[in-house]
Amino acid sequence: MDHVMSIVWLVLMILLAITEAATMGLTAVWFAVGSLVALLATLFGAGLVVQLVLFVIVSAVFLYFTRPLAKRFFSGEKVKTNFDRIIGMYGVVTQAIDNEAAVGQVRVNGQVWTARSADGSLIAEGESVVVRSIAGVKLMVEKQAAPAVGI
Fold this sequence. Notes:
The structure is a single chain. By secondary structure, the chain is an alpha+beta fold. It has four helices and five strands, in the order ααααβββββ. The longest helix is centred in the middle third of the chain and has 28 residues, at about 50-75. The chain is rod-shaped and about 80 Å long. The mean pLDDT is about 85.
């Protein structure tokens, strides 16, 4: 029976490690550690109940105490991409924006982007706009009352 349980714990540990590698969720790894402890207990002759208790306790303790630290360490700060940075920036319409005709371009931060009106209104060439969101590769913009400076 000890030989069979050793194989069960080893297989479980390997499957959990593979799951962790595939998902990178920082969850399965702690159960793999619990499986390792249960495997070691089996090798030292512990009974099935002791193995199961060790598996549950070690997995729970590692999950509870180390997962928040590991997530903080591995996740780091989210770095904004170029797309994220332009939300809230001002621009100038370089080609009139007409959602129904699927046309329109805006110059924002020195770059020309395909743009659509966030509220569906027509926006004439030369108008000042602010970027409200991004839909795919198109900027969703709104007309601004005052001209944007330094675009």
